[in-house]
Design brief:
Length: 574
Amino acid sequence: MLALHGTGVSDGISVGKAFVLQRELPEVPEYTVARHQVDGEIARLAQAVEAARAQLLAIREHIPASAPREVASFLDAHLLILDDPMISQAPVDTIRRRRLNAEWALKIQRESLGAMFEKMEDPYLRNKKTDVVQVVDRILRNLMLRAHEDHERMSAGEIVVANDLTPADAVMLKHHRVRAFVTNLGGPISHTAILARSLGIPAIVSVHSATHYIRHGEELIVDGKRGVVIVGPDRRIVAEYRRLKTGIARLRRELDRLRTRLAVTRDGRRIRLFANIELPADVRAATHAGAEGIGLYRTEFLYMNRDGQPSEEEQFRAYVKVAKALTGKPVTIRTLDLGADKQVDGGRAAAAIAVNPALGLRAVRLCLHDTALFRPQLRAILRASAYGQVRLMIPMLSAQDELFRVLELIEETKRDLKRERVRFNPRIPIGGMIEVPAAAIAADMFAPYLDFFSIGTNDLIQYTLAIDRVDDAVNYLYDPLHPAVLRLIALTIKAGKAARIPVAMCGEMAGDPRYTRLLVGLGLSEFSMHPATLLAVKRIVRESSSKRLAQTANRILKRRDTRAVHALVDELNR
């Protein structure tokens, strides 16, 4: 028996046989071609790109009606990548300039793009490296005349083990009714993880060398909550996990009954639960989970996998689609949270990659630096506000001057729209994200000028503890319960209460049931999270007494020892 550990990205337990999906490409050949053969190599590359396009379109046409909408969205993203000059044109230039064979020229470009994405600080954009590599590998397979599909032998109910999964594989997962999957690569915000949650099956990613340790047909237990894969379990372990699986199924049935019920504590305190989304298609999952609105709409996805930035009209249509789908419920649209290291023009950066992009020109700083990028988005959000309860949220505020400049731009945009007789909500709520320690400490200085706060714990923790949360060497230090982090959260909540504005939290901490009781005790009134965790958080809220939680939370805030804080939170959750 062997236990492998990774990152659980979709809860649940599955017991079944392994199907190891081996897709490694053979060694890519490298050679030079004669001058008269250059055009032939370019033609071969073009044919391989078109073959990849035809394959993806064919897969898209055969998506099962019951498959999540995210499947089509991710396939569309791969089709867009095929059209990007960085994929279709850059290798052609290499073939002409260096007279290399098409395979090697494409491999060089894949490595160049991979290095560029690795330097990106934002984890959502950094994860797009996977999509680029998958698209390039599909083209390489066509060039090397290798088969793409290895799924025909799969039986229903097997557990897929792979290096990584493509959006096209999601169609296969649905067709074969796969029970779970395990991958060598991936992270909690990769498309693989998003698809797993959408399909509602247990999944573990970043299980390094899983495809080497697990053999075809071996019995596996996949524990998606703990991020553990047990290879070749004995009968006692299998029996124990089957009991746990029965308990999880029972809990899910109980949670389903909470969809239409309010999140109210036993002593009558009302908590509002919202959902985080990346794409308009995500609204369905949010609505299904009973979300009271959208607490964070990440708009960066409109800027990815494309040549140039989206137009005002394209952004307007996307925002209106969400607003109309949630009639009567708030939709909080976060303005662009990109940085100097994150491409918005098909990968052609205007400036060199920042040495430390997390501390550089990003989010509101970039928007104020490049108002030609910012103004179309402000216009689109304001126009969309005429079609629903749209709220605008500013990320990464650190100084009052930044806020004042954004508010001035918003007022200018309102005047322009009014002059053009374009409809908008003149009283659209404006909120600020508290994700920089300076903003949390000075939250009382921001509060008089804003309609709401939202605490972005992912960055707040990273900046407070001076660690890169995506760096394997130091991410063990990432601790939401560090006393300094909790004090900053408490300061923000206190400032919001004093100014009588609501305080929400939209970071990962908000959707983790381990912290729900503590956050309610600290006075948090609004939570925004991935739809998959909303009902579990609601159950805890409904089972809690806010007054009792407040007493324990005050004790926790006074603790200086992180271990003591963890012990008290464990006690709170028992």
